[in-house]
Structures are given as C-alpha cells and as structure tokens.
C-alpha cells in the first residue's frame, strides 16, 4: 500500500499539468466566444498554445512551492495550496506580460486561466483521491492496523473512525495492551509479546497510543516494527505536541533534535520572498493611481511631506517604515519632524488616552494630532500602502507581525520577543482578528501562533481575510 500511495503522489504532477493545459485551452475558447464582452484582439491559437506549454511547468513549480505535492495532503488545506499555487502561476504570467511588453490578448483571459486551473487541478486531485481511497473496491486489501494501548477516549475515537470511514482504507485488526480489556475488539496480547505478535499476524501498521510510555519503550517498539517492515506511528504526549518545529540532525555522529522557533527558513523563506516581491510589484502597479490621489490630498490639506518615516524594529534590527503622513507635521515624532517637543506631547497623550494600558505597546484613541485626511486613511488602513515599498526592499513582508517602535519593543516579555524571529508584515493574524480591539497579549499570541505554524497557505488566507477586515474597519483608530 505504501508504494501505491507513492505512485498516486507522483501521478499528481502529470494530472495537474494536463488540467492546467486544459484550463488554458478552455479560457481561450471562452474568451474568443464571449458575446457580452467582445474581443478586440486575440493571439492566433497556435501562438497561444505555445505560451501555454511554456507556462505549464511554471504552474507545476508554483504548486510545488505552495506545498501541493507534500505526501501528507489534507482536504481544505490541500485546496488552499492549490489556490496559492494557481495564484503564483497567474502572477508569473502577469509578470511575463509586463516584462516582455507583449501585445498580449485580452487581460480577462488571465482571470479565466486562474479560476479554471483551480477548478481543474482540484477536480483532477479529487478524482485521484477517490480512486486511491477506494482501491480496496478494485481488489486491493485494506491495511491491517493494530493499536497499542488501553481502550480509552483516544483509542475509542480511532476505532470508531476506522469503522465508520471505510475510505481510510484501514481494518482494525486488534489491540495490544497490558490490561487485556478491549471489548468488543480483538485482543492480540501483551506489549512484551509485540515482536511475536507481528511475526504471526498480517499486520501493516501499528499506532502506539499508550500515553504513559517512556522513551526507551517507545524506541523499542519502533525498532521492532521497523525490523518487521511495519509502519510505526505514535500519539505524542503534551510536551511533544508543544514542540511544533522540530528538526532532526546528526552532530559529530550523535543524533540530535533541533527545536526551531519557526518553520519559516530555507525554502520556506525563499517561497515567501518570491510571493512578497511579485505581490508587492503587482500591488504597486495596480494601486499607483490611488496612491497618487492620496498624495495630492495630503499635500493640499496640510503642510509637510507626503511620506512619514518612522523607526521600527524588525528581525534584523531597526529600520524605517514608510507611511502616508496622517498627523500635523509638528506633531510627528522623529528628529526630522517635530523632534523632542512632539515626543513630549505624545507621552502626555499616551498617559491620557492610551487604550492599551498595561501592555508593551500603546494606542491613542481619538488622537488630536491626526488630520481630517489622516483620520480617513487610518480607518481604511490606506496610510500603510507605502509599506509595499518596504516589502519590495526586503525589510518587511506582506504577512507577519506588525512592527513596533524601539521604546515598545524594550517592554516585550521573553515570550513576546519571539515576534522578532521573522520579518514584520503589513498584515497578520491580529489584523484580521480584531486589530486594535485586541489586547497586545492577544495580538502577540496570534502572531506567535503564526510564526510557529507558518505556511504559504496561511499567508494566502490572511491576505484574503485582510480585505474584509479593512472594509469593515473593525478595531481601527
């Protein structure tokens, strides 16, 4: 069965490639025959299909970057990875058009390709998964599973899932435990007899569910199963569940486990940077008219520069964030603006109107320093659009913890200093979960969860939710 599962993982690549190519073809035909929106110009089909063949490998690479070829694929998470992969592929196509200054066909066709590739790849994978999970209907036998441990809430749940979900492809062969109490399931023997039990019975997989085990017992059972070519799995205890980011390595011939602060390194960091560069470039091009209008409104409504530079702390030390100026210039903190007088006034406002008392950071409600234009920009978060250039430069990311000032960071707890492990972001879990309505402890908790559980799919989800949070304006000041 293990070889069959590997085969189906490999089959994903050609199936995805076919579905993406089909999406290109259907998108072309759909746009060519569109009646409500007549086409002014379309490439000849033979020229278009050549581009499609060139873009298919790019789509496959994008899906791989999104994690869509991980052997451990699951439902909605996998579909999210498909959406991310298709979006990266569409971004690459748009970037190709932009860089080549091509006399490309209708831009609407890119949206069709994106949507149809998601539907097609998702459908192809669903069909493959349906075949894989029902192989026993085609003559393949189910895997015989044995549970090591007493019958309790966890093992009973495992047993009921195996019984009620035949698509899992498992047959609960029996229990191994010390008490011998496992009615109504078959009792195979005492854990000390596990080697002889495995050798005498057609067992394919063992799940070790005894929560009272020690490491010696765990590794003994694992070794026995490995020697008998039986898949071994264990339900972790609380400490192991807390260690979300483990890396196994060898140090001078001795096996060691590295406890990492975040999975966002190596290829993960590369993938995130690629998304940041492409995403910020596209956003800057699309939003440039809006940024121009905002710049004119700021310049006409109050004296001073359009862009406000504020010192913040990131994963590589201090840097300047770029924002549209929302306050009167004399009240902006910083040596190049209001200087010490502005700093003194801000400290008075913090004591009087801080809505985040008792936390490392501050937030001034109904800030009297804000201009009328600035008030609108803050409520709509449009003041943060220039940070797209921070993302492009590389000292910020599209998604990550919000950057704070040095005087705020010095008040972080030891746990909250984890926020400095990764690049700060324009948006994050806190921004889509209440923004300023959250206490800083709640905000930090969400951001720590993000950096410990990062994935491209999670980034894509946060970016989608950001639009809704901004439109609602909940928690903004």
Structural summary, described in words:
By secondary structure, the chain is an alpha/beta fold. It has three domains: 2-136, no CATH class; 141-242, NAD(P)-binding Rossmann-like Domain (Rossmann fold), CATH 3.40.50; 267-472, no CATH class. The protein is built from 15 helices and eleven strands. It has helices at residues 2-32, 45-65, 75-100, 108-133, 153-164, 194-200, 215-227, 238-242, 267-301, 339-353, 372-380, 387-393, 406-409, 440-452, 456-472, and strands at 143-148, 170-176, 187-189, 205-208, 231-234, 246-251, 254-259, 307-314, 317-324, 397-399, 425-427. The strands form four sheets. It has a five-stranded parallel sheet with strand order 3-2-1-4-5, sandwiched between helices. A two-stranded antiparallel sheet has the order 6-7. The longest helix is centred in the middle third of the chain and has 35 residues, at 267-301. The radius of gyration is 28 Å and the shape is flat. Residues 238-243 have low confidence and may be disordered.
């Amino acid at each position: 069965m293990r070889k069959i599962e590997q085969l189906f993982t490999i089959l994903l690549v050609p199936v995805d490639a076919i579905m993406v190519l089909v999406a290109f073809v259907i998108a072309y035909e759909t746009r060519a025959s569109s009646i409500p929106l007549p086409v002014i110009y379309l490439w000849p089909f033979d020229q278009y299909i050549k581009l499609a063949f060139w873009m298919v490998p790019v789509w496959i690479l994008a899906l791989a970057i999104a994690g869509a070829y991980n052997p451990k694929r699951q439902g909605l998470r996998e579909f999210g990875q498909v959406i991310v992969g298709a979006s990266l592929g569409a971004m690459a196509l748009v970037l190709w058009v932009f860089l080549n200054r091509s006399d490309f066909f209708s831009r609407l066709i890119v949206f069709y390709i994106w949507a149809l590739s998601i539907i097609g790849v998702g459908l192809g994978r669903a069909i493959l998964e349906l075949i894989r999970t029902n192989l026993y209907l085609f003559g393949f036998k189910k895997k015989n599973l044995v549970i090591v441990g007493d019958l309790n809430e966890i093992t009973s749940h495992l047993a009921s899932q195996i019984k009620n979900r035949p698509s899992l492809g498992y047959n609960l062969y029996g229990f191994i435990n010390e008490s011998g109490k496992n009615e109504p399931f078959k009792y195979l023997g005492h854990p000390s007899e596990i080697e002889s039990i495995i050798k005498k019975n057609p067992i394919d997989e063992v799940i070790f569910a005894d929560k009272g085990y020690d490491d010696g017992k765990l590794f003994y059972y694992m070794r026995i199963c490995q020697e008998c070519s039986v898949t071994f799995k264990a339900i972790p205890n609380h400490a192991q569940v807390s260690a979300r980011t483990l890396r196994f390595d060898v140090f001078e011939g001795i096996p060691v486990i590295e406890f990492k602060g975040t999975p966002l390194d190596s290829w993960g960091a590369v993938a995130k940077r690629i998304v940041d560069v492409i995403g910020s470039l596209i956003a800057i091009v699309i939003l440039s008219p809006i940024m121009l209008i905002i710049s004119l409104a700021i310049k006409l409504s109050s004296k001073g520069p359009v862009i406000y530079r504020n010192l913040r702390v990131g994963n590589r030390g201090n840097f300047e964030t770029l924002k549209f100026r929302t306050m009167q210039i004399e009240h902006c903190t910083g040596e190049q603006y209001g200087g010490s007088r502005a700093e003194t006034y801000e400290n008075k406002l913090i004591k009087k109107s801080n809505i985040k008392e008792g936390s490392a950071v501050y937030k001034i409600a109904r800030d009297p320093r804000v201009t009328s234009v600035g008030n609108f920009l803050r409520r709509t978060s449009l003041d943060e659009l220039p940070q797209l250039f921070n993302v492009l430069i590389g000292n910020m990311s599209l998604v990550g913890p919000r950057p704070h000032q040095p005087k705020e960071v010095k008040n972080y707890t030891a746990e909250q200093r984890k926020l400095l492990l990764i690049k700060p972001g324009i948006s994050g879990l806190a921004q889509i979960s209440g923004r300023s309505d959250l206490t800083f402890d709640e905000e930090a908790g969400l951001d720590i969860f993000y950096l410990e559980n990062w994935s491209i799919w999670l980034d894509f989800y946060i970016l989608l939710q950001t639009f809704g949070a901004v439109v609602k304006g909940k928690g903004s000041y």
